[in-house]
From TrEMBL:
<comment type="subunit">
    <text>EF-1 is composed of 4 subunits: alpha, beta (alpha subunit of the eEF1B subcomplex), delta (beta subunit of the eEF1B subcomplex), and gamma (gamma subunit of the eEF1B subcomplex). Interacts with elongation factor EEF1A1.</text>
</comment>
<dbReference type="InterPro" id="IPR036282">
    <property type="entry name" value="Glutathione-S-Trfase_C_sf"/>
</dbReference>
<dbReference type="GO" id="GO:0003746">
    <property type="term" value="F:translation elongation factor activity"/>
</dbReference>
<dbReference type="InterPro" id="IPR036219">
    <property type="entry name" value="eEF-1beta-like_sf"/>
</dbReference>
<dbReference type="GO" id="GO:0005853">
    <property type="term" value="C:eukaryotic translation elongation factor 1 complex"/>
</dbReference>
<dbReference type="InterPro" id="IPR014717">
    <property type="entry name" value="Transl_elong_EF1B/ribsomal_bS6"/>
</dbReference>
<comment type="function">
    <text>Catalytic subunit of the guanine nucleotide exchange factor (GEF) (eEF1B subcomplex) of the eukaryotic elongation factor 1 complex (eEF1). Stimulates the exchange of GDP for GTP on elongation factor 1A (eEF1A), probably by displacing GDP from the nucleotide binding pocket in eEF1A.</text>
</comment>
<dbReference type="GO" id="GO:0005829">
    <property type="term" value="C:cytosol"/>
</dbReference>
<dbReference type="Pfam" id="PF00736">
    <property type="entry name" value="EF1_GNE"/>
</dbReference>
<keyword id="KW-0251">Elongation factor</keyword>
<dbReference type="GO" id="GO:0005085">
    <property type="term" value="F:guanyl-nucleotide exchange factor activity"/>
</dbReference>
<comment type="similarity">
    <text>Belongs to the EF-1-beta/EF-1-delta family.</text>
</comment>
<keyword id="KW-0648">Protein biosynthesis</keyword>
<dbReference type="InterPro" id="IPR014038">
    <property type="entry name" value="EF1B_bsu/dsu_GNE"/>
</dbReference>
<dbReference type="InterPro" id="IPR049720">
    <property type="entry name" value="EF1B_bsu/dsu"/>
</dbReference>
<feature type="domain" description="Translation elongation factor EF1B beta/delta subunit guanine nucleotide exchange">
    <location>
        <begin position="136"/>
        <end position="222"/>
    </location>
</feature>
<feature type="region of interest" description="Disordered">
    <location>
        <begin position="73"/>
        <end position="94"/>
    </location>
</feature>
Length: 222
């Protein structure tokens, strides 16, 4: 006859009464019977069914291990009040633990702990394989000469001679300033953790015979 409809109040009440003096559906350790009844429930029993709720939370704690509970899975109607614990004369009664404290229960808990450790290790391994995202920026520099007699090709040559880890020079062009003077507008891509604008300005202004000043004309994260 079983518990009846476990999604109804009568079914839950029957289940709660059943677990008033039991820890598992059949015997003294988790079995396929517990997995079948657990899966038949729509959700956790309400707090007014304390025995059923205690059992539900205990079985839920096993996670995917429920699929490997020992025993044969039968229809949920096969389980219920007709299932009873061992007779009073059973020699094992003195060691009976309502909360599954026997060796089988301990083995299941140990297996659950091993499963958790395995999943944490797998997660850490997947995390370690993910490529590290390198933050980069595109910077446009404007390099101004002293006068119209400054050799701008020499200015660009000197600027591009600056080498550093995380720095890559890109396109450039000359932009008229006035009075026959041109400034060098040059683009570079930098790794943010390695190269900053201060470094670029300091290195370029070292060519003091050619360079009057350096300005940042554009700065964009890539």
């Amino acid at each position: 006859m079983g518990f009846g409809d476990l999604k109804s109040k009568d079914g839950l009440s029957s289940l709660n009464t059943f677990f008033a003096d039991r820890s598992y559906i059949d015997g003294y350790s988790p079995s396929a019977a517990d997995a079948v009844v657990f899966e038949a429930l729509a959700s956790a029993p309400a707090s007014n069914y304390p025995h059923a709720l205690r059992w539900y939370n205990h079985i839920k704690s096993y996670g995917d291990l429920r699929k490997s509970f020992p025993g044969t899975r039968k229809p949920v109607t096969s389980y219920g009040n007709s299932t009873a614990p061992a007779a009073d004369g059973d020699d094992d009664d003195d060691d009976f633990d309502l909360f599954g404290g026997d060796d089988d229960g301990e083995d299941a808990e140990a297996a659950l702990e091993e499963l958790k450790k395995k999943r944490v290790a797998e997660y850490e391994a997947r995390k370690a394989k993910k490529p590290t995202v390198i933050a980069k920026s595109s910077i446009i520099l404007e390099v101004k000469p002293w006068d119209d007699e400054t050799d701008m090709k020499e200015v660009e040559k000197n600027v591009r001679s600056i080498e550093a880890d995380g720095l890559r020079w890109a396109a450039s062009k000359l932009v008229p300033v006035g009075y026959g003077i041109n400034k060098l507008q040059i683009n570079c891509v930098v790794e943010d953790d390695k190269i900053g604008t201060d470094f670029l300005e300091e290195e370029i202004t070292k060519f003091e015979d050619l360079v009057q000043s350096v300005d940042i004309a554009g700065f964009n994260k890539i």
